[in-house]
C-alpha cells in the first residue's frame, strides 16, 4: 500500500510540474508577443518578467518556469471541483450529487 501511495504522490508531483511548464510556456509566448508589439512601436524588447533579456529569445524552445507558475498550477489542481468533492465527507458528496442531478433533470 505504501508503494501505491508513493507512486501516486510522484504522479501528482509530475502532473504539477507538467502543468507549471504549460503555464510558463503560455506566459512566455504572451511576453514574446507583447515584446514584438512593443518593438514594432520603437521601444525596448524586454517583456514581462524579462523573458527576452534572460536569453529566451524567439528562436529558443527553453522555458523558464518560475515560482508563480508552480503556484498557479497548485492552485488550479487543488481548487478544482473534483478535488473539493474528494475532500468533503461521503454524505456531503452524495448530497451534492443528488442536488446536481435534480437540478439537471428540472
Question: How would you characterize this protein structure?
Answer:
- This protein has 106 residues and is mostly helical.
- It has one domain (2-105).
- Helices cover 70% and strands 0% of the residues.
- The protein is built from 4 helices and no strands.
- The protein is flat, with a radius of gyration of 21 Å.
- Mean pLDDT is 75; it is low at 43-56.
Q: Provide a count of the helices.
A: 4
- In whole angstroms, the N-to-C terminal distance is 43 Å
The percentage helix is 55-70%
Number of strands: 0
Please describe the biggest sheet, giving its number of strands, its sense, and whether it closes into a barrel: none
Order of helices and strands: HHHH
Shape descriptor reads flat
Instruction: Tell me the number of structural domains.
Output: 1
Spans of at least 5 consecutive residues whose pLDDT stays below 50 are 43-56
Instruction: From the alpha carbons, calculate the radius of gyration and give it in angstroms.
Output: 21 Å
Overall structural class, as computed from helix and strand content, comes to mainly alpha
Mean pLDDT: 75
Strand content: under 5%
Concise synopsis of the structure shown:
This protein has 106 residues and is an all-alpha fold.
Give me the secondary-structure topology.
Blueprint: H1 2-40, H2 67-78, H3 81-87, H4 90-105
Helix pairs in contact: 1-2
Write out key terms for the chains shown:
106 residues, 70% helix, mainly alpha, 4 helices, single chain
